[in-house]
Specification:
The protein is an all-alpha fold and 108 residues long. Helices cover 52% and strands 0% of the residues. It folds into two domains: 42 residues, no CATH class; 47 residues, no CATH class.
Length: 108
Amino acid sequence: MDPKRLRMVYSQVGGRWYPIYQEGNKDEFWTPKPQFKFYPEVLTGGRNDAWPAPPEPKLMAALGEVCTRLIIADMVQDIIVKNMAAEEAVKKAHDAMVEVFKAGGANV
């Protein structure tokens, strides 16, 4: 967790993980890249997938299944690659998620 070591890790993974220390984003790796400019603002409002529900086991398992099945990624691909209307892609993803939640006994 040494900040110097973390700086090295962050640069080696190309920004996959954002600095955990408050001044970490002032490092030369982050400052010149415009794509990272909005990260601090995004992170202040970020929430766990389960939010606002408590992260109970069935819900977390269902969310894991949603991730494993690439439901959200498929929704984005449906819109961008397959030119599906956003409303249709969202409904398709929503229906798939409800199916996963119900199958796993998660409260929907």
